[in-house]
Design goal:
The protein has 438 residues and is of the alpha+beta class. Helices cover 35% and strands 23% of the residues. The strands form three sheets. Strands 9, 10, 11, 14, 15, 16, 17 and 18 form an eight-stranded mixed beta sheet that branches. The protein has a six-stranded antiparallel beta sheet with strand order 2-3-4-5-13-12. Helix 2 packs across helix 3.
Length: 438
């Protein structure tokens, strides 16, 4: 077992940009305990030898009562040692089995699985808390400073060198105070997972509009064309979910920079990663030539802008609204060919009242629907619930509809959403968003 101190790790030569490390123990208790005990012998051979010798010597002390008593005492002491190690590392095993570990530009995070299957960030600690690293054949073991609530970490992996290289790279970037300059991006495996989820839930993308304007934090748009069963365009962001939307009020922070979830308190929302979806009528023109016109392009810009708003530590909740009447010189977000003035955050199709999640890369990403709304609707939502809004403006009773099958719900919600969009894209009641300067 190779021992690397913190100072040694900071001097290692590491090439390339680090990728997030995600780890969850999938080994059995009987696999873990012998390796953990053997690892302890390799980490502290003198201490382990002395401790075990004293313990076994205590058992041999029964030799004064006779050979048989001495043998029994030795065997009993040996049995007690094994029970002690098993009990101790059984607790460690339960901890590493409970948590999903993620190491990225935000630090070392431990996630727990909630009853609904979502992954909740329990604790995040900076890399500066790492004290010692031990590299074994089957795992990488970290000892953290006593000030950390994490204590120790076992990362069970067959690719220990790659895992170590990524984590040491993060340590070095944090030491140089450059880690926050890293753009939040999906790792290759995460990209594959999120694309697979989108295909399963929304359909297969035929194109991806690349974000060339925001090179540091790009948010691309996946384009899913209409089909016989889903007769509408689906636009879905790809990249917004890489960024952690801060929930600072939900966590207590130590002077060392460690964040721990406020346990025992009620939490409104503990999801911190989001992607966004918008639906367009089937006759919407998304060809390259058509997108040169603002009247066709604006949904892409609005969806991209909503995603980037989360980078400014703005967290959307279901039922939230957002208007674009800042009263400054900002470019109008909606084209004059529509009546739209703001957006309403809902769940995506097919079941609009129920949330859509994907556990990707050791964290939960929630998908929000971005629904354009008019000034009148925005005012109404300021005093009424989204359920009341749907009943008044979309002729949907979501309480009654919730008792129907998924196919029936999808049909009603789809018709209502697309019909609502169609009614307001003609510009019959266009409002002036920004006052004309005199």
């Amino acid at each position: 077992m190779k021992h690397i101190t913190k100072d040694e790790a900071l001097k290692l030569l590491i090439h390339g940009r680090p990728e997030p490390v995600v780890n969850q123990c999938n080994k059995s208790l009987w696999w873990f305990v012998p390796r953990a005990v053997l690892g302890l012998w390799r980490q502290q051979p003198k201490r382990m030898a002395l401790t075990n010798f004293i313990w076994l010597l205590f058992g041999l002390s029964y030799l004064r009562l006779g050979t048989l008593w001495g043998v029994l005492g030795f065997l009993l002491a040996l049995f007690g040692l094994n029970i002690y190690y098993f009990y101790t590392y059984r607790k460690v095993y339960k901890a590493i089995k409970t948590f999903t570990y993620r190491m990225d530009e935000d630090g070392i995070s431990l996630y727990i699985t909630a009853d609904d299957g979502t992954l909740i960030r329990y604790i995040t600690t900076p890399y500066s808390q790492i004290k010692d690293i031990y590299l074994s054949k089957d795992y990488v073991y970290f000892e953290l400073e006593e000030t950390s609530e994490i204590g120790i970490i076992y990362l069970i992996t067959e690719d220990t060198e790659r895992v170590l290289g990524n984590i040491v790279s993060y340590m070095q970037l944090e030491e140089k105070q450059e880690i926050k300059n890293l753009p939040s991006v999906y790792a290759n495996q995460e990209l594959d997972e999120i694309k697979d989820f989108v295909i399963e839930r929304f359909g297969k993308p035929t194109d991806i509009f690349r974000d060339t304007l925001n090179r540091e934090q790009p948010i691309d748009i996946m384009v899913i064309p209409p089909t016989k069963t889903r007769n509408y365009w689906t636009l879905c962001t790809l990249g917004a979910g890489t960024y952690r939307v801060r929930n600072s009020e939900e966590y207590k922070r130590s002077k060392e920079g460690e964040e721990v979830l406020n346990c025992g308190e009620e939490h409104d929302s503990l999801i911190e990663h989001y992607e966004y979806v918008m639906y367009l009528p089937a006759d919407w023109n998304l060809s390259a030539e058509a997108l040169e016109k603002e009247s066709n392009y604006w949904p892409i810009r609005v969806l991209n802008g909503i995603g980037h708003d989360t980078f400014d530590n703005f967290q959307f909740q279901l039922g939230d609204t957002m208007s674009f009447n800042a009263g400054d010189d900002t470019e109008v977000s909606f084209d004059p060919s529509t009546d739209f003035f703001g957006v309403l955050i809902l769940c995506p199709l097919p079941d609009v009242p129920n949330e859509t999640y994907a556990n990707i890369g050791g964290r939960t990403i929630q998908f929000h629907q971005v629904m354009p709304i008019t000034t009148e609707e925005l005012d109404y939502l300021g005093h009424n619930s989204p359920a009341d809004f749907m009943k008044k403006y979309m002729e949907l009773d979501i309480i009654k509809l919730d008792e129907e099958t998924l196919d029936v719900k999808e049909k009603h919600y789809t018709n209502a959403l697309i019909s609502h969009f169609e009614r307001h894209k003609k510009g019959a009641n266009v409002v002036t968003m920004y006052p004309t300067k005199k």
